[in-house]
UniProtKB/TrEMBL annotation:
Alphabetical keyword list: Mitochondrion
Name this polypeptide is given: Small ribosomal subunit protein mS41
Taxonomic placement: Eukaryota, Fungi, Dikarya, Ascomycota, Pezizomycotina
Family (UniProt): Belongs to the mitochondrion-specific ribosomal protein mS41 family.
Region spans: Disordered: 158-179
Domain Small ribosomal subunit protein mS41 SAM: 47-103
Length: 262
């Protein structure tokens, strides 16, 4: 329930009332509760990575925010004084940090096994009690279901195709092409497996999702890297003058089209 202003304050002259209200606001800011600072995660370990993920070129302002604590404690006025411009960039940054504070992240925010900004994803079968998983199919066993999990990196990065020798890719004449590599097994406890949000399994054994890159030569294995704008919420664009003027703009256009049709 909102508190009402004292009647004595309402009886004050207008200039005095405004000055008193401004004083009250400054006192409220001084006594505002301290915001909780979330801990860095394996996928978001520092300020630079956070600003890179949320996009809109905010990574250019990383030098203006000295620490992780400052990222989640600086006010809008302090960000402005630090040089984070324009105002919509500050609002976007503050919106995203509140989401992160409340545990809302983009793809990869729940990953635990991350090294140098790269996480390995793999399709695995885990026990399932769902009725639809009781019978075996061509792609899974009975009583099992497929999920995408995050595992420690076990597959070496594929070689750069631009630097690879042509004969190594095609094989020598008269020799069969090299067999497709199989990803080494990973030991894990099925009870502790947690499915990764924001990704899905397509074509029985392929991992798809925003920013997901399959590892060539290894079926059911993919990687997710920290990249610019991976979590970006893109701004909309105005159509026919925007929401307020849309009806007016379209009406004038119809009138002009009728005139031209005569």
């Amino acid at each position: 329930m909102a508190l009402k202003r004292p009647s004595m304050l309402l009886n004050l002259p207008q200039p005095t009332r405004i000055f008193t209200c401004l004083q009250c606001r400054s006192l409220h800011r001084l006594h505002a509760p301290t915001q909780r600072i979330p801990k860095p995660t394996p996928f978001v370990p520092d300020v630079q990575t956070f600003l890179t993920l949320i996009g809109r070129k905010l990574s250019a302002h990383s030098a203006k925010i000295p620490s992780w604590e400052a990222l989640f404690s600086l006010s809008g006025q302090q960000l402005r004084e630090a040089g984070v411009e324009p105002a919509r960039a500050r609002r976007y940054l503050m919106w995203w940090r509140e989401r992160f504070r409340n545990g809302i992240t983009g793809v990869g925010g729940d990953l635990k096994e991350v090294k140098d900004g790269i996480a390995e994803l793999r399709v695995m079968e885990v026990p399932s009690s769902r009725p639809m998983d009781r019978e075996a199919t061509l792609t899974k066993g009975a009583g099992m279901r497929k999920v995408v999990v995050n595992v420690p990196a076990t597959v070496a990065l594929p070689p750069d195709p631009a630097k690879a020798a042509p004969e190594a890719e095609e094989g020598r004449e008269g020799e069969p092409a090299p067999a497709r590599a199989v990803a080494p097994p990973v030991n894990f406890n099925a009870k502790d497996v947690q499915a990764i949000h924001g990704v899905k399994i397509v074509q029985a054994n392929n991992i798809a999702g925003t920013g997901v890159e399959p590892v060539k030569g290894h079926q059911g294995v993919a990687r997710l890297k920290v990249k610019e704008g991976l979590w970006e919420q893109r701004r909309g664009h105005k159509v026919d003058g925007g929401e307020r003027r849309r009806a007016e703009v379209r009406y004038k256009r119809r009138v002009q089209e009728k005139k031209m049709a005569r």
